[in-house]
Amino acid sequence: MSVGPSVTHVISDAITRAHHEEWARVVASLAKRFGDLDIAEEAAAEAFATAVERWPADGIPPNPGGWLTTTATRKAIDRIRREKKRDDKYREALLVTDDTPLESVGAIDDERLRLLFTCCHPALALEARVAMTLRMVGGLTVPEIARAFLVQEGAMARRITRAKDKIREAGIPFRMPSAGDLPVRVDGVLTVLFLVFNEGYLATGPDTDPVRAELTAEAIRLTRLIRTLLPRDGEVAGMLALMLLTEARRPARLSSSGELVTLDEQDRGAWDAALIHEGHQLVRERLNSGELPGRYQVLAAINAVHTSARDIRDTDWSQVVALYDQLVGLDPSPIVALNRAVAVAELDGPAVALASIDRLEGALTGYHPYHATRADLLRRLGRSAESRAAYDRAIELSGNTAESAYLTRRRDQLG
Amino acid sequence: MQYLMSVFGPTELSEFGSYPDRESMVQAMADTEAFNNTLQANGHWVYANGLASATSSTVVDGRVDPPVVTDGPYLESKEYLGGFWIIEATDLDQALELAAQGSKACRGKVEVRPFQSMPE
User: N or C: which end of chain B has fewer CB atoms below 10 A?
Assistant: First the structure.
């Protein structure tokens, strides 16, 4: 039959979609029911493997999520029966679950949210939180996560196993944080997702593509998920807006020769208008809430100003600087001060900006954007020799190939 | 679950222990006692005590005959175990909350470590 390939296509699409939509739910519901992440992960993986085997022959079930959960539950029960004979003691150590009502914290009671908080628990090392989130919530395979962070597969598998062991042995609970802990814990989750997003937006190593859309897309997908689960959280909305407004510029961010294109030189016609529209809506929604914004909301607002200008010359720099002033109040880190200086250069000139970043030297000497910013300001002030030295330092510290190419061209254009 | 909450302190102790002066030592001891009373009242208490200085320890190797006795401590370090609690908590989140209170009371960082398996 000539319909063969298209049927195969439809089924593989259905499996991909089910994986995106149902993986976290299957893992989370099994984790809640059986109190063990290892069993939940393995059974979910087996259920999806069974779907790949069976759906082409049996057809797509009417309720793919239900089918996957039922199949995974059977697999988990099989494994528990096998292990019960072997090791009763292991079964004693279960994830602790409880059913505290959640109305008070403005969260939707969803097992996926518990799963996310467990994976991003502050008692785990940051790199373990990232790996666990991508595996358990995102459904990425161990080889995919290993590739994303340039780690050997074996090392990544061990990292995940160690994290699961710690969750079990140390009694990290599978439940919602208390209302008092919630803001800190949500911030912890956002930190992990932002790290994934940034690794996609500007890869740190020279051995991968400079911009990796699969990671930015995954981070956005997971942030959308948290937004549906924590609809009242302003920082979650801010983070989603920030990611969308950054992602919108991705098509204009690399030149045909693979060089990084900075904001002032980007073809704004290539920006993704739908993402910008959605990001602006979120920013407006937060402004209208009347609540004091957190740092991600302010960052999103800064990006909203940038993406509102049809030309770099139309940018409302005084608004950008005012927002940075607000951000400095929330996050007095030297990196924020550096980014503020970039906007100050547009408003008050490069000399004022340069004076404001000189005092950051000590804190940011190993941070390549510091040297790149300084190089650009010195260039604009006609101080070519110092500018060249700063470009050299920035190139030396930058691991991203597209960024190195851009910095090298800029340096070589100096008079 | 049961957890060990350890407090580490400097090797060299002044006459006020690891505290800068008598007043802060007295205050920390009073706060720690109050914390211990809360642990007992809320059913978290298993055991707690402070240790004498690490230089007073002795290491014994009984795997050989006769046992070998040497001057301690076992590991060379800048900081040594100064005291500990053993607590009962429902999960790590509760243990971390208690550790934060204990740390504040005794003015030291607290390491929280689970025991291997559940009691009984």
Answer: C
